[in-house]
Fold this protein.
Amino acid sequence: VKFRLATIFVLCGFCTGILPLQIHAAPIRHEESAAPTAVELRMETVVLAKVNQQRVKYGLPTLVTNPLLTQAARDQSKWMAKNNAVAHTDLQGRNVGDRAQDAGYLYYTILGENLAMNSGFAKPVETAVAGWMKSTGHRDNILLAEYTETGIGVCIKGKEIYITQVFGNPPPVYPPE
């Protein structure tokens, strides 16, 4: 079953307050790394700015973009668009941690992920971030002080806009290789 809602918000990790919706889970695959369009890049920048505005509003430091988390987020948004699905975990149990490792983000102390799919909104990014802030779990991800890094991926497919934000925190000391 596939769901097409005006806006879908899903949360990974902090599942204490998900908006009323249905979730469609399907296999997650590492997507080909086609470069995002100029519009998708602009939307990623706006997501970061809006999320960081919220963090500053609550006395938290801004998140820094990590290119590995960005790759994981972009891959997830591309996968969701390709499969008409919004899901954090595939049928084999692969999740944001697996996608982060696939992208090369091997060492971290904590990870989180917010997802959204918008269709038909004049300001889809602002709508997504506002929706995340109204959802306890998504808000917890945005306002968790332990997160210091983020990656954002946007994929546009027709009128649907898929947004993934991955949050991370590297360890204070990386293990020897």
